[in-house]
Design brief:
With 277 residues, the chain is α/β, with parallel strands linked by helices. It is built from 11 helices and 5 strands; from the N terminus they run αααααβββαβααβααα. It has 2 domains: 71 residues, no CATH class; 171 residues, Nucleotidyltransferase, domain 5. It is elongated and about 85 Å long.
Length: 277
């Protein structure tokens, strides 16, 4: 074997006696931590988020090293693309403009965004309505039904209002779907002092935060799985939203999960008020 690889017998046995270097031992320990974080994320974190998670645990490590170890050990973030059925309405109701563009959402409960997406259970459609705080990206309410109508979006709104209890003046933004244009829905918003806002006609990226959330959910928990009953789908949604709100790191939030980001925002605001007082 030594002749085949062009090394001396003396050199081979000297290498064998030396054993593994400290760097190799460190890489092995680091790889174990990377595996743990990767599994805890549902196998969806790539090297940037894993690097941030390691640093939050006290590790001094570069993203380049994490990426190398992930590559060498076959650890890959799961990603997927999806196609959403975006049938344009033949007529747009132009009475409600995009008001969320006028609000700088720098603290929670200033702007909420909402949307509905399609999911399949045993070959039949289910509709998921989600409401998110634009500032913190935290999901504040959601509902799942087999019909796409005002009752679906009203249920998620009811949950959000119960969870948050926002002050009057909150802006709620959505697309121009009939479930948001329904008189029953608009009336409920008006009763709570909430200002309704909708996408501009023919502008498809006015609700980018919700599009991003649905993309992440489907890529990380939905695609590649089959659901034989609504109960199992509902369980996956419940667990994912808990993970998304309390654990999933967001690069746009300084690599903090939404709940922790809100605590930081509230703490900073309280300090500013105390100094002003």
């Amino acid at each position: 074997m030594c002749r085949v690889y062009g090394v001396s017998r003396h050199g081979y046995y000297a290498w064998k006696r030396r054993g593994k270097s400290n760097r190799i031992f460190e890489d092995e320990a680091l790889t174990d931590e990377i595996f743990k974080i990767w599994h805890q994320s549902g196998k969806v974190y790539g090297s940037p988020k894993i690097t941030q998670a390691l640093k939050q645990q006290g590790f001094r490590v570069s993203q380049k090293r994490v990426a190398r170890l992930m590559r060498e050990n076959g650890i890959k973030a799961r990603v997927a693309t999806f196609y959403r059925n975006n049938k344009k309405l033949k007529e747009f109701v132009a009475a409600i403009p995009n008001r969320e563009l006028d609000v700088m959402a720098n603290k929670p409960d200033q702007v909420w965004v909402g949307d509905v997406t399609y999911l399949k259970v045993k070959g039949e459609w289910r509709y998921l309505s989600v409401i998110m705080d634009k500032c913190s990206r935290k999901v504040v309410g959601w509902s799942l039904k087999d019909t796409r109508d005002a009752s679906l979006t009203l249920k998620s709104l009811k949950q959000a209002l119960k969870n948050r209890k926002p002050e009057a003046g909150l802006v709620f933004h959505s697309d121009r779907g009939i479930e948001y244009r329904a008189r029953l829905y608009s009336k409920r918003l008006e009763q709570r002092g909430i200002i309704q806002s909708m996408n501009r006609p023919k502008v498809m990226n006015d609700n980018a935060h919700m599009e991003s959330f649905f993309h992440n959910f489907k890529a990380e928990r939905y695609h590649g799985r089959k659901f034989n009953c609504e109960k199992s789908l509902r369980g996956v949604i419940t667990r994912y939203i808990g993970f998304y709100n309390n654990q999933r790191l967001h690069s746009s939030l300084g690599y903090l999960p939404p709940s922790e980001y809100e605590r930081k925002i509230n703490k900073d605001n309280n300090l500013m008020c105390a100094k002003a007082g």
